[in-house]
Design a protein that fits this description.
Elements (H helix, E strand, L loop, with lengths): L5 H14 L4 H10 L1 H9 L2 H16 L15 E12 L8 E5 L4 E2 L2 E2 L7 E9 L8 E11 L8 E10 L9 E9 L4 E10 L6 E12 L2 E12 L7 H4 L3 H24 L1
Antiparallel strand pairs: 1-5, 1-11, 2-5, 3-4, 5-6, 6-7, 7-8, 8-9, 9-10, 10-11
GO biological process, one term: phenylpropanoid biosynthetic process
InterPro entries: Allene_oxi_cyc_Dirigent, Dirigent
Keywords: Apoplast, Membrane, Secreted, Transmembrane, Transmembrane helix
Length: 267
C-alpha cells in the first residue's frame, strides 16, 4: 500500500477546500468548526508568518514608534525681555552688518529708492542698556532683505537669532525672530518663532523701536513678549525597549511562531 506523505494530503485538502464554492452559510459553519482559519493559517505558508513576526517585533521594540519626551504639566513660563541691538551697517571700522548682495540700481526703468533686493548679513552686539558700551548680554546673528518697491519708505524682511552669552541670565540659550519691519514706523512688531535652551519652544512677539539712527548705525530697542519652556519628562528611554528586552521579546515571538509551525506539521 502506497504511503502518501502528510504534506501531500494537506496540499490536496487545501486545493479541495479552495475549489469548493462557499456560500455565506457554509463559511459560517466552517468558521464555527475552526476549519476555515486552520486551512488559511497553514495555507499562507511560513514566510508570511515570519514576516508578520518581524513586523510585530519591530513594533513592540518601538522602532516604528519613536516617541519624543513629553512636556511636563505647567512647565510653560512667560517673560518680558528688553534689550538693545546695535546694527552698524557699513560704519567704517566698526561695522557689524554688511551688504552681501547689493540693491538694484533701477527697477522698471525708475530709480530704486528703497534698496529693493539688497541682502544684509548681521552679527550685532546686544546690550543690556541703550549705550553701546553697556553690559553685553548676547549677539544677534541673521539677515534682512529690503523688500519694498512701491512704498513710502524702506521695509525689511528680517530674520535673526539672539544668542545669549555669559553676561546674561540665560547663557547658551537662543530666541528666534522673524517678521516684516517697516523702518519708518515708530513701532514694528515681529514674531518670535522658536528658541533653544531655557527658551525651548519659544513663541510670542517682539516690538522694535529705533532708539537712535545715525546714517548706517541703528540702535534698536527690542521688547520681547515670550512664552516658552518645556521641562521634558526624561523617561523617554522607558517608553522604548532596551536592546536586551527587545532581543528577549524577539526570541519569544519567534519561538512561539516556530512552535506553531511545528505543531501544524505534526497535525
Amino acid at each position: 500500500m502506497e504511503v502518501v506523505p502528510e504534506w501531500a494530503v494537506r496540499k490536496k485538502r487545501l486545493s479541495v477546500y479552495c475549489a469548493q464554492p462557499q456560500t455565506a452559510s457554509e463559511l459560517l459553519e466552517r468558521d464555527s468548526k475552526g476549519e476555515h482559519m486552520a486551512v488559511v493559517m497553514v495555507g499562507v505558508g511560513p514566510v508570511f508568518w515570519l514576516l508578520m513576526a518581524s513586523v510585530l517585533t519591530l513594533r513592540v521594540a518601538g522602532i516604528f514608534d519613536p516617541q519624543l519626551p513629553a512636556c511636563g504639566q505647567n512647565s510653560q513660563e512667560s517673560k518680558v525681555l528688553t534689550f538693545f541691538m546695535h546694527d552698524d551697517l557699513d560704519v567704517k571700522g566698526a561695522s557689524s552688518a554688511f551688504d552681501v548682495v547689493p540693491s538694484l540700481k533701477t527697477i522698471n526703468g525708475a530709480e530704486n529708492k528703497f534698496g529693493f533686493g539688497a541682502i544684509v548679513m548681521l552679527d550685532d552686539a546686544v546690550t543690556e542698556g541703550p549705550d553701546v558700551n553697556s553690559k553685553m548680554i548676547a549677539r544677534s546673528r541673521g539677515f534682512y532683505m529690503f523688500n519694498a518697491i512701491n512704498e513710502t519708505g524702506a521695509a525689511l524682511e528680517i530674520q535673526f537669532e539672539v544668542i545669549f552669552g555669559d553676561g546674561s541670565d540665560y547663557p547658551g540659550s537662543t530666541i528666534s525672530y522673524q517678521g516684516y519691519d517697516k523702518i519708518e514706523n515708530a513701532e514694528r512688531e515681529i514674531s518670535i518663532v522658536g528658541g533653544t535652551g531655557v527658551f525651548r519652544l519659544a513663541r510670542g512677539w517682539a516690538v522694535i523701536t529705533t532708539q537712535a539712527l545715525n546714517r548706517g548705525a541703528a540702535n534698536l530697542n527690542i521688547k520681547s513678549y515670550v512664552y516658552y519652556g518645556c521641562q521634558a519628562i526624561t523617561d523617554g528611554a522607558s517608553r522604548r525597549m532596551s536592546p536586551s528586552k527587545s532581543l528577549a521579546m524577539s526570541l519569544v515571538i519567534f519561538g512561539a511562531l516556530a512552535l506553531f509551525l511545528l505543531l501544524s506539521k505534526v497535525r
